Structures are given as structure tokens and as C-alpha cells.
Amino acid sequence: xxxxxxxxxxxxxxxxxxxxxxxxxxxxxxxxxxxxxxxxxxxxxxxxxxxxxxxxxxxxxxxxxxxxxxxxxxxxxxxxxxxxxxxxxxxxxxxxxxxxxxxxxxxxxxxxxxxxxxxxxxxxxxxxxxxxxxxxxxxxxxxxxxxxxxxxxxxxxxxxxxxxxxxxxxxxxxxxxxxxxxxxxxxxxxxxxxxxxxxxxxxxxxxxxxxxxxxxxxxxxxxxxxxxxxxxxxxxxxxxxxxxxxxxxxxxxxxxxxxxxxxxxxxxxxxxxxxxxxxxxxxxxxxxxxxxxxxxxxxxxxxxxxxxxxxxxxxxxxxxxxxxxxxxxxxxxxxxxxxxxxxxxxxxxxxxxxxxxxxxxxxxxxxxxxxxxxxxxxxxxxxxxxxxxxxxxxxxxxxxxxxxxxxxxxxxxxxxxxxxxxxxxxxxxxxxxxxxxxxxxxxxxxxxxxxxxxxxxxxxxxxxxxxxxxxxxxxxxxxxxxxxxxxxxxxxxxxxxxxxxxxxxxxxxxxxxxxxxxxxxxxxxxxxxxxxxxxxxxxxxxxxxxxxxxxxxxxxxxxxxxxxxxxxxxxxxxxxxxx
Length: 579
Hints:
The protein is of the alpha/beta class. 38% of the residues lie in helices and 12% in strands. The longest helix has 17 residues, at 30-46.
């Protein structure tokens, strides 16, 4: 490599410092960075103004909609020269083929995104489901989270996806939150930060862009922003210590994207009813200038009711760009948005330098993601590649490590050698758990509990619907009544196959043993059965404040392997706060 002159070295250092918070692969040389900027400058100069503005938009591609929808997206890609796509439901092979086609039609390769917080399963039913963030928040070894997101990155590459709109870094302090809940790592700031950093590293170390969301913090809301505009009315001190804290901690960790929420936050935006996603005070004033974030700033989906019900398509896009966003996600009016942005430039409301800043950031990110050239993906056998034994083994290990034992007063675990009865309650499937427990376990339906002999060991399974992260956590009055009756003359192991929030109004004072499995699916049920049978260690910690008795960080260690070396009939327990 030629020796850099003083002037060129100064320019290089200036450029390098400008992208310190921008995603870039590790171990780049000065020559690598120089080539990246040369490609960006050359590409930028080759674009017309209309093509430059097109880079600011990402639209949604559904494969479960009709051919008219596909044709509309094809026309937008070709005519509006957009910068990217977000893949929605549901056919993986067709998505690959369409992405290949659209990439070939694009002068600048498209950045392809997906909401894949719990893996591609979030949008592609044939893929394997990874645990929700709340489950991951219970895991003590955060390296496991990085292993998971590295596997998600592998799946993304298989699909031609470059950007996973994850992780959620909202601190979920509201148990009744209708939109975040299971999507959050928990109610404790440090745990959210550590978990999110591991998740982001697993993606970005494997060349998939991450996006921390939903800035400035969606964890204490009671309104679903898909439907209407939530209000976060906390003081600035509270916002700085809770809602904003994860974003501030992660800003300088090289995470390539921040997604801005549709929230009204009066402490940050004095104009009444202005969502954060279109607030210049919040995006430019706080995120860019005060916090110094230099990566890509993207709106939350612009079709969500919080903003779509209040502003016209196109108008909304222009407002979002004026506020400081680089990318308008899920745009409903690309052509009108481009016209209105150009009108604002012509009227001196926005300088052309704003377009240059955003487009060059987008191009630079595309280059670092390898999109200076595009290699088509093969759609054959994709469903098997997204759902096979390698996924299953990893996922069951994650659920195993998340299991949280809150109490075991009578030392009922592990189950080895005991006659056990099992009573499944609530609405979701339970048969996998029953099968994995073993043939010695006797299943009793809710109407058969009176036939269980007194002083028996009885597992009560609360199996909550796992079909969506947004389901409520409430346990039925009938299930609570059955549990209460059983505690009078039985030794109860209460196993929650759902959010720990399900325990918030359940009296567990007379329940010997309480285990939280967080989710109800085949992988979580298999992992739980193995733990109850003494095959694996239990050492998760509660990631959320549930009530005055069940606080974040609670949990007991149960290590049957260690116990077996000292006394086959004893079990080792330790209690500690989450680190």
C-alpha cells in the first residue's frame, strides 16, 4: 500500500471518525475503507436526483397477496427506484425468486429487510421459531443469545436478507403493554443492554445489519401503535434512566440502525400529538445531535395506525425525512413522498446536503453488507435450510437455559423416582410435554383432579397460546380455582408455559414449586421435561418485575449433576440476583 500523504491521511481520519457508529465489518484496512468511500462517491454521482430520493424508501413485499400486489411492487422497484424491500408473509422460495428478479432490475442493489426478532419464523411459518426476547432475557449466559442471532444471520443470508429489524431494546416496565411485552428482554435496563448487545453482535459479526428499536422507548405504553398513537408521559429524568438508557449505552457499539417509534413523548416534543417518528426535536435534536448517532435512522412502519390515521401517504414520508430519518419504512406513497421532499428542497426547507448525507450513509451500509455486487440465491430446499435439526438443538438449549425456578419449598425436583400426576390447564396444546415427561406420569384433566390421591406430587401446567407475541398473559379464573383447590392436599409443581406476567395475580404462597418456561411450543416443552427429569441444569433468572413478591433477578439454581456426586436423593439450590 502506498504511503498516505499528510493531507490524504487527514481526510481519511476525518471520514473514519464520521462513521464510528456506522456498521462496518471488522478488521477493515485503511485501503478497504478508502475503496468503500470511492464506491459510494462514484455511485452517488451516477444517480439522478430522482434515483437519489428513491434510496430513501423501503416498501413491503407480501407473497401471500395476489398477483396485483406483486405487480405493484415490481412497478415501484422499476419506476420509483426505491432503496429496499421489507419481506412479509409467507412463501420463502417465492420471496427468494422475487428478490432475485427485483435485484436484477435495480441500478443500485436493494437492501432487503425483515422483522425477524425471533427468527424468520416471524414472517415465514415454515422456518424454525427462536425464543422471544423475554425468554432470552432470563438466560444468564449471554453468549447463547449471540449464538442464536448468528444462526438467524445464517438464515437471513440464505434468503438474501441483509437487515434484521431487531433487537427490541424497549425496557418493558408495563405488564399490560399490548405491543412490546414478550418482544422485550425485560424490565431491567442492564439486562436489556447486555442481551441486546449479544443479539446485535451475532447479527453484525455475520454481516447482517441490526436495528435497535423502538426509539425513544416503547416499554411503558398501554396503546398499540399499530392502531393509535401511544403517549409516554414520563419526566426527562425518568426517560434518561429507563427508556433512553439502552439506546445511549448501545449508540457507540457499531450498531448500524436505529428504528424510531410512533410515540408521543411530551417531555421530548413540545408540539402536541407529534409522533417521535416525525419529530425533528427527537430525531435530529436528540438522536443525531445530542446523542451523536451516525448510523442509519429508519422509521417504524408508516402504515401503522398511530401515523397512517393522521397523515396522508407521501405527506407522512416527507415529514419523516424532514425530521431527520434516513429511511422511510413501509412507505405507502413513494412517488408522492419523493415529490414533496423535492418540493421542500426547492423551497429551501431542506438542504440538498440532507439528501446527500442520508443517501451516502445508505450506500456505505450497502457496500459494507456486500451489496456493491449481488449474487442471486437459490430457492431450492429453502424450507429445510430454515428449519432442521441444527435449529432444533440450538433452540432447545436456549429454552433450557431460560427455565426459571422461583421456589421449590418441598424439594420436589427433580422428579426421578416419584409417582407424578399432571394436570394441563389453559388453552394451548400440552401433549409434547406429557409425552416427554414419560409414561410413568399420569395425566388428569381438570374435571378429574378429585381422583388424585392426597399428598401426591402434581404438576399443574399453565399452557398459554404461543401463536403470537401479543397474546395477553391473564390466567382464567377457572384455572386459578383448580390450582387453589389442589394446593389444599397436594404437593404442587406449578409450571407456567407462558410469560412470567401470568403469575402477577396468582397466589403462589401455598404452592411448593414454581417454574417458568416462558413459552408453549414443542421445543420449550421438551426442554422443560428434560429439566424436570433431572437431565439438565435450571439456572434462569426472572427478567421482569411481576409483582411485589416476584421481582426481576429472582431464581434458583438446580444442578442435578452436581447433586448426584454428593447425594443421589438431594438437589443443590442456590439463589442469586441477576448479574
